[in-house]
Amino acid sequence: MKKFALRLVGGLVLFGLTIAVLAACSNIFGDVDKLRPKAKTNSYTVEFDANGGGGTMKGQDIAPGVSQALNANAFTAPSGMSFAGWSDSANGAVLYIDKAAVQDLAKTGETFKLYARWGYKVSFNSDGGTAVPDQVVLPGGTVTKPTLSMTKTGYTFIFWYLDDPATQWNFTSDTVSGEMTLNARWNPVSGTTSYYTVEFELNGAHDITGQYGDLQWPAGTPIDRPDNPVKDNFTFGGWYTTQDFSGSLYNFNNPVTGPLTLYAKWQCTVSFNTNDGSPVPGVQTVDIGATLATVTDPVKDNYNFVAWYSDSGFVAGSLWVIGTSTVATNMTLHAQWACTITFDKNNTDIGSADANPQAKTVITPASTVVTLPAPPTRPNWTFNGWNTKADGTGAAFTEATTVTGTVTVYARWLLDLEMIQISAGNFQMGSPASELGRSENEIQHAVTLTSDFYMGKYEVTQAQYQAVMGTTITAQQTLAGYDSTNYGQGDNYPMYCVSWYDAVEFCNALSGIEGLMPYYTIDKNQKDPNNTNADAVDPYKWLVTPNPGANGYRLPTEAQWEYACRAGTTTAFNWGTDTIDSTQANYDATNTSDAYYQAEGTYLGKTTIVGSYAPNAWGLYDMHGNVLEWCWDWYGIDWSESQQGDPTGAVSGDYRVRRGGAWGSYGLILRSACRVVSSPSIGYRSDGFRLVRP
After folding, report:
1. Closest to 365 measured CA to CA, from 320, 403, 413, 422
2. Confidence of residue 165 (pLDDT cuts 50, 70, 90)
3. Domain 298-415 in CATH: superfamily?
4. Model pTM greater than 0.85?
5. For residues 318 and 332, what is the distance between their CA atoms, to the nearest angstrom?
6. Which among 164, 179, 616, 659 is least buried, having the fewest CB atoms inside 10 angstroms?
7. Fold entry, domain 417-694
8. Where does residue 75 fall: left (phi above 0), alpha (psi -120 to 50 degrees), or beta otherwise?
9. Can you tell me whether residue 223 is helix, strand or coil?
10. pLDDT tens digits along 675-694
């Protein structure tokens, strides 16, 4: 048993070895083909694509460097079509006809594909004349004009036509869309009828319709009038029998009596583009080299007509002068327009060196003024740009503003008015019981002002008032019932003799000039129900109400005035003491009955130039003395000791409040807490005002 097992195992081992050896041999012999050199392919292959046709064609091997005929087309044509030839693309032009000889279409070993191109068969019916071979024309293509000399005994060949013998087939522009037959048209030359040659000289036009070839026309009959020829940029002016176009137009109703040459005359048509102006009647057609007849200049709202140009962009050299410039081609003349921008200084100041008004002209195609005139100047004002409305409610006008017509723009002005920002805060309004000369209407109480505001650094001056209202100080004194006594006159003196009504009108007027929303609505036709004055005291009683959200100028409230005057101080005067003398403010320092009289001081007896004395800690001048300053508030004496926020005074009353004292006041009137009242209709020689925003 063990021996048998060994043999069996040995046989298996031998059998496995044999299999392995055979496998190895197989691999060796299998690689013999790889080691044997292959034969070189010395040709390229042309493949054929039916490209919409039917059937199949085998590829064709062609040796390089050899001219060899292509195999005959074996594809079947699509319905109604015929084989036109071969192309190298599906929609390309025919490159090779059937069985054409080709050479080196591709490199050795490469493949080159040809696509069958299918077209429409075009036959030629010579009607007994010279036979013409058929053509196959690709869809949308043109027929090749036969070059054979067409002959027919007793006839002269005229032209080829499709259906209508009178319509010549145009081999240049007429296209093929299906199978068709072209027919030969002949004119007989035998018998008693004579024929004459008729020629058409197109003078530069293109015979795109094929109607203008030489004709053999029977004598004694009129020529069929051809369609008018076409020449780029010119207008056909008719047929003439003379080359210089002398005489009249040829009459196609006349019979032909001999050989005839007709010359096409070309003219120029000129139209007019008025660029949105009024139309110019019709167009003008003139001979080449002629001038145009006079035309009426067009008109256009808010523009002035400048000239005609042959170029729509009005380039240099294209200016056209009617009656002088000569026409060389069909053309359109374009109207050029100009508009005038007038720059109005917008004031009545006398003696200004600035030209007023100034003007600039904008000529199309420009759309802006490009540069503005130099800013105008005006005493007591700062120039603040141009506006399309005198009151500043229009649109701003700048170098970039698109000009749409003649317009006047107006200077905008800002009054030379310095304003100091006053921050919101808390203070004790009124005076303590211990303050010398205090009045019982000065009950001290806490006030909170919740918003910042701006207050004039100085009292409104006479120059500023005149600049806005046009009223001089002497005129204002007359209006207030005073003579022309000089209580301080000059540009930089404070304005006085101003009533409360005058002050609020000034605020609105200045706001309007500067393009701000007026702070007040002033109704002079409705009496204020909160004005408890007798009519004899206040005959006006205008209804004046604040406008919510307005940003214009206004009068300060009484609380704002005292807060700004004190500038953080709690003493009688804003320089931090309870004393005063004539070096600190303009007032009557000579009155010994004044509670604040100290020693013989100075009494000027009139106003002084604003800013003549030192400012308070917040930079405000003349808060004490010079002129009393109107506040918004109705006067009330029922002040509470409780905290108040942004108070605006009593609801009604006889009087409006004035603050700060004046040039004729005692020192005690100049105190920060002192309240002085007056009817709103009265403007004393000591009454002025100071502005606030907002």
Report:
1. 403
2. confident
3. Listeria-Bacteroides repeat domain (2.60.40.4270)
4. no
5. 11
6. 164
7. paralog of FGE (formylglycine-generating enzyme) (3.90.1580)
8. beta
9. coil
10. 999 999 999 999 999 999 99
